[in-house]
Amino acid sequence: MRNRVRGFTIFNLSKPHIRKVFVFLLISTALTFAMVGTFAMFQAKTTIRSSSLGRVTTHIQTKTLILLMGQVLPYLREGENIAKQDNLFTQLFFEVIASINPRDPRTFLGRELPLFTLFDAEIDLASADVDYTSIPIESPPPPELEREIIRGVNQAQWDQKQQEDAIEGPRLKQIFIYHTHFWESYLPELNEKNPNRANSVKTNIMRVGKHMANHLNRMGVGAIVADKLPRSGWVGAYSHSRSLAVSMMKKYNDIHYLIDIHRDSRRRAQTTIDINGKTYARLAFVVGEASKNFEKNRQLAREMHIKINQLYPGLSRGVITKKRANGNNGEYNQSLSPNSMLVEVGGVDNDFKEAFRSIEVLAQVLGEKIQQATPVSTKGE
User: Fold this and answer.
1) Which of 28, 209, 376, 379 is deepest in the core (most CB within 10 A)?
2) Where do the TM regions start and end (predicted)?
3) Measured in whole angstroms, how far is the alpha carbon of residue 324 from the centre of its chain?
4) Is residue 356 within 8 Å of 364, Cβ to Cβ?
5) 3-state secondary structure 262-278
6) pLDDT tens across the length of the chain (381 residues)
7) How far, CA to CA in Å, does 209 sit from each of 159, 214, 221?
8) Domain over 143-378 is classified CATH 3.40.630.40
């Protein structure tokens, strides 16, 4: 089966026994992926937290894995020092070569199992029908569409005519509304059916932000919307929107609330709710754990979620927290203020009417909170 030539061990892979071993390994690996994937999705369906899965996976040790593999690969049992060095060697090898942490088996599967990377997020609060298979997901526009978006931004070609006329409102501006992914839109508004095409420089989520600002200003709560687009596509979007937010906070010293409005990539069944005969685009709040204001921002999101669902049960899908990992920004400019929100308004299949109904509810809840906290002497300013 094997020979030694000048200190090297040569394996003869043509032997029937060796072929059987490799076939066994391939089948075992496939079955392992299938079972773990099924278990993970079952956990997602039956609980809103990943703690149960974490308790199981954290008990798997690298030494155990090596011992199991040694049952079919005798060579693994021949190293005299492997028991002493297995943790160090395995950790260095997988983390440096493959970005895999052997202490967290989810990192072995994140790129191979569909939706498994969703376990990088945590559900802090959620409506009864929300689990890990239905939490918000981000998806970049196709490359050709992103090039079109960047070209449109550089040429400043977006359709202001489709925006509502801005309502000036009070002189005191306390809320700044902006859109990191300003190109996100809704398929019915674009006469599109492909969910990857729910993006536009001209007709997009900015209309929802303008509508929220106008509703707040009618309430007597000063709000402004970004008056220009971040000069960016998907890559670097949060860095560009951060610069925009910082410049507006310098211009208006009374801004304490930052609201970044997005559109989720989920489909209609998960992003729409019927309340008293009217359809609404469901809301979801995303809080970045990498922000220095994480606790305060999470508390604000919790408050919005609970109050909204008291008024309109199920309208808010939940509060989702995300770490800075696997492509997640994890901060979302929320370190700029302890009153920061990232809000997902509906999904690709919703429309502006549904989004407007929902954003009015958020504006009402937030506006009343601010009015209750504002001294009487300044409410009329």
Assistant:
1) 209
2) 21-42
3) 10
4) no
5) ECCCCCHHHHEEEECCE
6) 555 555 555 556 566 666 677 667 777 777 776 676 665 555 545 444 433 333 333 333 444 444 445 545 554 444 444 444 444 445 444 444 444 444 444 444 444 444 444 556 888 999 999 988 888 988 877 777 777 777 766 655 444 444 667 777 788 999 999 999 988 999 999 999 999 889 988 889 999 999 999 999 999 999 999 876 666 677 788 988 999 999 999 999 999 999 999 999 999 999 999 999 999 999 999 999 999 999 999 999 999 999 999 999 999 999 999 987 766 678 999 999 999 999 999 999 999 999 999 999 999 999 999 999 865 445 545
7) 15, 9, 15
8) yes
Number of H helices, E strands in the chain: 12, 11
DSSP helix/strand/coil, 192: coil
Alpha-carbon distance of 301 to 320, in angstroms, equals 9
CB of 49 within 8 A of CB of 2?
no
CB 339 within 8 A of CB 256: yes
* Distance from C-alpha of 167 to C-alpha of 338, rounded to nearest angstrom: 26
Q: Give alpha helix (H) positions in 155-252.
A: 187-190, 206-219, 237-251
Q: Are 363 and 177 in contact (CB under 8 A)?
A: no
> Which residues share a beta bridge with 119?
none
User: Within 10 A of 61 (CB to CB), how many other CB atoms are there?
Assistant: 14
Helix (H) or strand (E) holding 354: helix 352-373
Q: How far apart are CA 304 and CA 319, in angstroms?
A: 9
pTM, 2 dp: 0.70
Residue 281, strand partner residues: 272
Q: Where are the domains of the chain?
A: 2-114, 143-378
